[in-house]
Amino acid sequence: MSEGGDGRTDEQIAERVKEMSGAGIHYPTHEDLGDHGCDLVMKGGITSGIVYPLAACELARTYRFRSIGGSSAGAIGAVLVAAAEHGRDRDGFRKLAEIPIKLGPRLGDMFTAGPGTATALAALKAWLQPGQPVRRRVGNVLGTLVRAQWWSFLVGFVAVFVVGLAGSLVAAGLPHDGGDWARLALVTVILTLPVSAGVGLLVALVAEAQASRASLATQGFGICVGSAGPQARESSDPGPFTDWMTAEIDRVAGVPGPLTIGDLRQSDLELRVMTTNLTMGRPQTFPFADRTYLFDPEELRAYFPPKVIEHLKDGQQPATAEDGTPLMTAEDPAPAAPGTSPGLLGSVGGALLRLLGWRAAAPPSAGEVRPLYWLPESDRLPVVLAARLSLSFPALISAVPLWALDAGHGGRPRRCWMTDGGLTANFPVHFFDSPLPSRPTFAIDLQSYPDGGTGPDVFYPGPGEDGLRPRFTTITSMQGFGARLLDTMQYWADTAQSALPGYRDRIVEVRLRPDEGGMNLQMPPPVVFRAAEKGRQAAERLDQGFHFEVHRWIRYLTMIGRMEGAVDQMASRWEDVLPGGAVGYHDFVLNHAPDGLYDHDQAWRNAAVKRTATLLAFAATNDPDFLDGEPLPEPDLRITPRY
Fold it and tell me: Closest Cα to residue 42, out of 13, 19, 26, 65?
């Protein structure tokens, strides 16, 4: 029996988790709450998303959700919370609270291998087995590998064993007495057998790596596709995660489905998630701002249940270019499985692998021509598409193929791999932000415990100085150094943003142990319940500690101070000649702006100068000085891309 950070036993925590879906908890109706709303943003973290259902349920007792967003696992949380809010008056949040209970014993069932990656997934799960020492986990991985590639292992083992035994006999001659036999046995046990086993394992490893590599290339570069495709069951029982999400979203929302973005908008709900277009190398927000993307129904059938594909196609004709030319998949080659010749061991190694019985997966036909369809307008997009486009953890979960027109190559269709939103914005705390907010936008961060592994399970800094304290992580090994390098590359922007005034007072931090969330694909029920309860506690701390009037005051002071700084800089360059002799911007806008680009007539320019002068009058006085006593740290007011 273990205890949570607050001293409660696993049984007490499980009981509290189950209470949230019981009749004793009151979830107000839409009418009860009226306009008392909030927004919610959730961070990515693979299985750490189990934190979010009860966090949302706790907040739902006080607030009506108006805008909901997230990235990666946070996107799953976002679509489920949006479904619950849409179905609030149909017990939506009570159904949402059942999710940790349903997933507790079966979380691992959601991660199912694609057609050719069963061994890779089994080896990964063997390595990630909770509570096992490293030696045991290594043994489990090797056992998985040998069972899957037993023929390759056996051939490699026997070949080296025979060669080694023959070498011993050639070197020492045939044994003539008991002493000779003893020496031969000793050499065999100490040298020949271990070397033979090592070579057998190496051959099995290379054979499996080649097989998995070929399969990964044909199923979106991930071990788990996430769906049984045409064989998908319409059941909210845990199964492949996309199939489960599709059914669970509709169950929680209380609709036959699939629930769409338009359905949410009818409930005054906004959903926004991050995805990453790996082909273009850029982050993107879903729902997309316009109809940029196309899809191949036959290709997507492996990624989504049939009802989602049929909904996407419903009422559509195959897409055409502006001149009426059909847009076809043949314009872009299909991802091909690598052959053995250029593989891991080159042509010689490929020949050896073929002798051992390995065969490359058959690549898809690059010449197959299929029509493309435009993705529907945003109101008709299924909500499950948002979660799946954002949750594509590299190598573990397949990227999703969409298509776009490449203007740089004659407008031909090109396949775009949509992968994990967490690659570019794992904690999109900027979602739903505004200079002067009309309601709180809460955000739930996921972190490990500070050095030493102690402290509260939930940390809420509030608006004070605690939020300014940098987080120190002790680095004592190359593994730790590498891990911090990756974390810093991925999260530096989120970390810096989260410390700013007007941000840190609306962010609550849930701290997870090494066995909670992340890559723990097979958490036992007590661990699932413990993580879920931390989410509820985090929401409780927000509800008790956040004060919207304080937040409004901080946002005003921060925004007006940044505006003063920006306008001061503009004023200094409006009339004065610039360094190098260039005219000031007043004279430039009136008389020297270049022709042919963003043209405006003289009347527009005269009015623009007059209006700009009105704005710059803001900088003519510094009473009061908005920069004096501005909340720290000072942020920047700058132009950034919208994505």
Answer: 65
Helix (H, G, I), strand (E, B) or coil at 413: strand
Cα–Cα distance, 102 to 124 (Å, whole number): 24
Cα 137 from chain centroid?
27
pLDDT in tens, 260-291: 999 999 999 999 999 999 999 999 999 998 88
Mean pLDDT, all residues of the chain: 87
Give the whole-angstrom CA distance, residue 575 versus residue 587. 7
Write out the two tokens for 205: 């490893």
**Could you tell me where the beta strands, DSSP code E, fall in 466-535?**
507-512
**Distance (Å) of CA 409 to CA 44, 332, 479:** 35, 11, 43
- 523-541 pLDDT, tens digit each: 999 999 999 999 999 999 9
592: which DSSP letter?
I
pLDDT-based confidence at residue 385 (cuts at 50, 70, 90)? very high
Q: Is the pLDDT of residue 379 over 70?
A: yes
Inter-residue contact 466 to 530 (CB < 8 Å): no
Q: Which of these, 177, 306, 302, lies nearest to 233 by C-alpha position? A: 306
pTM comes to 0.89
Sign of the Cα pseudo-torsion (194, 200, 202, 205, in order): negative
Q: What counts of helices (H) and strands (E) characterise the chain?
A: 23, 13
- Residue 129 CA to residue 523 CA, distance in Å, equals 9
Task: Name the helix (H) or strand (E) containing 158.
Answer: helix 150-172
The backbone torsions φ and ψ at residue 208, rounded to the nearest 5 degrees and listed phi first, read -70, -40
What pLDDT is attached to residue 337? 45
Secondary structure in 3-state letters for 232-259: CCCCCCCCCHHHHHHHHHHHHHCCCCCC
